[in-house]
Design goal:
20% helix; elongated; alpha+beta
């Protein structure tokens, strides 16, 4: 088990196609706090108005970073299974700045409230509410935001897709990372939901907001479960091999 942990937590030897061995020192980190700062795109809001959704409010749960209008607080990890808390972990190699999401989700506070024109969207109530997002990723490393309010959407509904320009800027000295120019797009699932409610056109892929992510993190010191270790080793070797081939 110690040999396995050395591979996962401290040292990974990756052999590339040239036959040479490359020494990397990836470490697993867990997010402990932070926030998302948002600017809503006027063009995106205008498109939503054409189908019957007019923004009423977008509440801030923390002070947004300079230049942004809305701040969404990232919830800290929780030891109570009944309380929402961030569980997101990532792998980072300081030698070459390689970043890889591993598991878990980021849990945010903050909601959007839209007034509904029932002449255009007869299948909805008078207000459409979504938010308190859970940010996670699928098997293709595509990130998406799930609504956890269950106010106007079914439980844990995929509402927005997340498009980032690249890897975050990680600072191990301050144990923080930052990423800007992130786009939040209306998902195909949400667009189909609105079409079923009477929307006159698809809104899939419409840019709703531009975001900046600020996170705090710590190195993981607990030993992962054996099945997680195997998965991490597979992911690490596949990711580093793919990176070297590129």
């Amino acid at each position: 088990m110690n040999q396995v942990m050395n591979l996962v937590g401290l040292t990974a030897i990756v052999t590339i196609s040239t036959g040479t061995a490359v020494l990397a020192k990836p470490v697993i980190y867990a997010e402990t706090g932070g926030q998302e700062s948002l600017i809503l795109y006027p063009n995106g809001l205008a498109v939503l108005e054409t189908i019957g959704l007019t923004l009423n409010s977008a509440n801030s749960t923390t002070t947004p970073k300079p230049g942004y209008d809305i701040g969404a607080l990232l919830l800290p990890p929780s030891t109570d299974p009944g309380v929402r808390g961030t569980t997101f972990t990532f792998l980072y190699d300081d030698q070459d700045g390689f970043y890889l999401p591993l598991s878990g989700s980021e849990e945010f506070l903050g909601t959007f409230v839209f007034d509904v024109d029932n002449n255009l969207l007869p299948g909805l109530g008078y207000q459409f509410v979504f938010g308190n997002f859970s940010n996670s990723f699928d098997q293709t490393f595509s990130f998406f935001l799930t609504d956890t309010t269950s106010s106007s959407l079914p439980p844990m509904f995929r509402a927005l897709d997340v498009v980032a320009p690249g890897f975050p800027d990680v600072d191990l000295n301050t144990q923080t990372w930052v990423e800007e120019d992130i786009d939040l797009l209306i998902s195909e699932e949400l667009s189909n939901f609105l079409l079923n409610a009477g929307a006159s056109q698809s809104v899939a892929g419409i840019k709703l907001a531009k975001a900046r992510a600020d996170r705090n993190f710590v190195a993981v010191t607990t030993v992962p479960e054996p099945n997680m270790v195997i998965a991490l080793i597979t992911t690490i070797f596949a990711a580093f091999s793919l990176k070297k081939l590129k």
